[in-house]
C-alpha cells in the first residue's frame, strides 16, 4: 500500500498544477476560521459577530465546519480527474503497466491517494473545529466536546465517495474537462429523475428514492445546518425541526457507491485496450 501511495504522490508533487490545486484544497478549509470572525455591521446600529452567536459552540461546531469545508471538495476533484487525464495524455499509464504495475495496483494507487488526502483533510478540519470550539464555546465538558464527532466520519466518507466518483468518471472519458462535465450532467440527471418520480408517484417517496442516488446520498451525509442554527436561537420554531443527524445507513449507502465506483474503474481499465 505504501509503495503504491508513494508512487502516486511522486507523480502529483512533480506536477505543478496538481501541487497548486492540492495546496488550495488544503488551505481553503481554513477559511472556516475567517467565518468565525465575521462581523456584520447592521446599518450602523450594531455589529453582529458570528462567533458570539453561539453557532461555534460544541457540539454544533462539528456540523457547521464539516458542512462548509465539504463545499471546497471541488478543487481536489480536479486533481483526481487530472490524475487520470495525465496518465493517458502523457502515456504514463502504459509505461507503468510495462514496468510491472498491474491494472489492479494502478487503480489501488489512485484509491489509496484519495483515502490519504481525504484523511488529511479530515484531520485538518478536526483541528480547526477543535480550536475554534475551544475559543468560542461555553462548554468544556469532554462528553459535550466529543458529542457529534460522527460528522467527522461522515465528512471523511463523503470526500472518499465523491473523489471515487470523480476517479470513475476520469477513467470513463479519459479527459479532465469531460469528466467534470459528466459530473454536472449526473447532477442534472438525478434531479430530472427525482422530478419524474415526484410526478408519477409522490414527493415523499421520490425523495426517499433520491437519497439512494450517488450525489444526493453524499450530500445527505451532512445536511445543511441553517435550520438547526435557527432552532437553537428560536426554540419555539418547532416547525423548522428536521433530521440533521448522521445515520449509519447513510454512511453505508455512500460506502457501497464508493466500492461500486472503484470496481467499475478497475473493470474499465481491465477491458480497455491500451
TrEMBL record:
Residue ranges of the TM segments: 20-40, 60-84, 111-136, 151-170, 177-199, 248-269
Organism name: Mariniflexile aquimaris
Protein name: ABC transporter permease
Keywords: Membrane, Transmembrane, Transmembrane helix
Domain of life where this protein originates: Bacteria
